[in-house]
Amino acid sequence: MYNILLVEDEAGIQFANKAHLERSGGYTVRTAMNLAEARQSITESVPDLIVLDIMLPDGSGLDFLNELRQAGNNLPILLLTALSEADDQVKGLRAGGNDYLTKPYDNSVLIARIESALRTASKIPVSLSVGNVKIDTASKRAYVDDVDMGLNIKEFSLLEQFIQHPEQMLTTSGLYEKVWGQKMIKDNTALKTAISRLRAKLSELDAGYTITFSKGEGYYFEQV
How far apart are CA 156 and CA 132, in angstroms? Predict the structure, then answer.
C-alpha cells in the first residue's frame, strides 16, 4: 500500500481528496495544510508520493519542491493548482514536478495521474549498498538485512552520502551543503543530531558499519 502526502490548504478539497484516495485508490493518506506541516510530516516519515498544491498560505509549493530536489529527494510529486497558464505549468515541471493538474479536476483523473507517477517511479529504482546496508533512492528507504531502518529524509540523505563514499572523509560543511541544500551556518547542531540518530539506528540493527568523527577533518562511514 502506497503512502501519499496531500498538501492542500482548502479544507473541503483536502477532505474530499483524502476520502477519495483512501476509498477508491486504496492509499494511506497523510495531510498538511501548509508548508510548515508538510516539512514536519516528511521529517517524520517519507511518503511514496506528494500531491502538492502550489498556492499555500505560508509560501509557494514550488519553493518546497525546490527544497526537496536540492536535498536529493526524487520521490514523485504531482502539482495541483488553480493556475492554468502554460507558463505556470512549465515552471512547475522545470522545478522538478512529475505531473501537473489544474483545478477543477475529476477525482478519477487525480487517481490516474497518481498511478502513472508511481508506475514511472517504480521503473527506475536505484539501489546502493555497502555490506548489509542498502538504500533505495527511489523510495528513500534504507535497510539493514532487509529490515527498514525507519529513517527520516535528513537521515536518509546523510546515509546516501556515506554509502557513496565508504571509508572516505566527508567534511562537516560538505555534508551540510549536500543534505540541507545551503551553506553551513555556525551552529551545526541539526547535522550533529541527525548523524547521532543515524549512528544509533546503525548500531541498533547491527549494521556492521558506523559513523566516526575526526576532529578537524570530518566524518567517516566505516566498518565496526
Answer: 16
